[in-house]
Amino acid sequence: MHDVAAAAGVSRGTVNRVLNGGYVSADARTAIEAAIAMVGYVPNTAARNLARRRSQAIGFIALEDPALLLEDPNIGAIMIGANEILSLADQQMVSLVIDSDRDTQRVSRYLSGGFVDGAIIVSARSHDPITRLIAQIGLPACFVGHPPDLDRGIPYVGIDNTGSARAITARLLATGRRRIGMIAAALDRDSGADRLTGFREALGSHFDPALVAEIPLYDYAYGVKGMRALLDREPLIDGVFAASDAVAAGALESLREAGRRVPEDVGIVGFDDSSWALRTQPPLSTVHQPARDVGRNAAELVLLQLRGKDPVPESILLDSPVVWRTSA
Amino acid sequence: MHDVAAAAGVSRGTVNRVLNGGYVSADARTAIEAAIAMVGYVPNTAARNLARRRSQAIGFIALEDPALLLEDPNIGAIMIGANEILSLADQQMVSLVIDSDRDTQRVSRYLSGGFVDGAIIVSARSHDPITRLIAQIGLPACFVGHPPDLDRGIPYVGIDNTGSARAITARLLATGRRRIGMIAAALDRDSGADRLTGFREALGSHFDPALVAEIPLYDYAYGVKGMRALLDREPLIDGVFAASDAVAAGALESLREAGRRVPEDVGIVGFDDSSWALRTQPPLSTVHQPARDVGRNAAELVLLQLRGKDPVPESILLDSPVVWRTSA
């Protein structure tokens, strides 16, 4: 700015007025604009925002194994939905990858260091240091999904995983299946644990814990393994609830290997209604997750806190209806 | 800091010395540390870094339709590779979504506003405003892939798309196929254009432009359409080079619909060696893209510019060998 003022032959105050839209004479404005072009001045927005104590940026963090991020079309859709709303509010969404303890520490410093005004956290778990930090420093935030023990006044956006799991299991039961198993994934997340609960509730006295294969992640390769385990334990299995569409796609692979026809011999249902659901043979009956809308709502809840005027809802649950196709 | 100094009964200068590791008496240090805990002071790192004129953050931007980001396992792998190296250098990678003109403008301000020290740009195109801006403001940067007309001293990391496309087409020819077509995607990117060039070079005088179906994106759904177009134009087609694995997976779907067996009736090859390649039936013969390594190298090239000591190579080309499976 010093260089601009010198080149234009005006004071720094006059340059400042031009930059911030205040009054200056037409001559001074022309001289300053020419000087700006000449010296290649670019306003340091980071400095300006700092003076105003805001960064105009919102962090987006998915606390998932990054390898899984690549496979999970939901997280991308949540991110795009959130970006859509933040963009309209002129907020820069910055998404931060966490792949190591070193990342966790650095991201913690970033979140508490004035670089963002808020954060959206996907798949938070109760013992996660990022989750604790956000509660501690009081950063305006919103969870997508919620840690099981969350009780710290941070709102969340999600779906009724239990209810939807119950609904799709009931629908599978209604097709006349007798021996129904589940490939249950990610039981350390609310989504994974709740889907298992819904499955158990729908089966009631027919629930058989031996017919639950547990896998760590919502992942195709684990779906292949989970289905093999179920076939080993119960060759007469005729119905399967896979905890996600990717898991269901893996299960279909194992059923094909084992020579079982779908849906004739085994009916299978998934969860997510992601791009996987339409690509499998046959296309999956599943639960529709409104992932983009989840992202949009999470962004709204962060903006609401930043505006600091209206009361912030504790949580928003969006509809997640069953979509019935031909895999069961 | 004012509050900390008041609570500890010392000057702000003394607090500053404790925070920055200078000498203070043991008593003063104890008092200040207690005061810090009491008032809940968190150092504003954004302010400190600003004073030092660095943000310790590197932007990561993929100039692709965000809907495609969700489908493309390569971009995620590039991102994870880049994060790995940046993390070791204690740099925060911030990834920025561009989904609208509004996003382009805001991201441009972010990049030029002091929020990042450098940037990694994936899939830059020549007319992209972000590409122009980066060249203009001289931000330390690295491209993954390169805009066709790039001549601005910005290094890039990539693979030899032309050479690999030539190699896999030659291999497909060697299986005895007579009527080979290509589903060519993203011809406005260097990767897409180069793969078509390699295909044409390998076929030489056998190249028939009627057997090239053009689609806009590396995408499953377009792969389905591209293959239908080729089958319409040449029912005797017996070999297909799909510009990516996702496109090949879509093409397999069309071939199944049309009752063609793979590889017996039609041999098909892809490009990427992404998770798609192992999930199709049969698994895809393809070109291996070392996506994580591409990300790692791109991060190294940005760090090299930030250190400002050693010369920066103009480009790094990584090996991308043919991986032969059973789809051809």
From TrEMBL, chains A, B:
- InterPro entries from the xrefs? HTH_LacI, LacI/GalR-like_sensor, Lambda_DNA-bd_dom_sf, Peripla_BP_I
Q: Which residues form the HTH lacI-type domain?
A: 1-52
Keywords, A to Z, come to: DNA-binding, Transcription, Transcription regulation
Top-level taxon in the UniProt lineage = Bacteria
What are the recorded GO MF terms, alphabetically?
A: DNA-binding transcription factor activity; transcription cis-regulatory region binding
Range of residues in the leader sequence: none
What is the name listed in the Swiss-Prot or TrEMBL entry for this protein?
Answer: LacI family transcriptional regulator
Protein source organism = Winogradskya consettensis
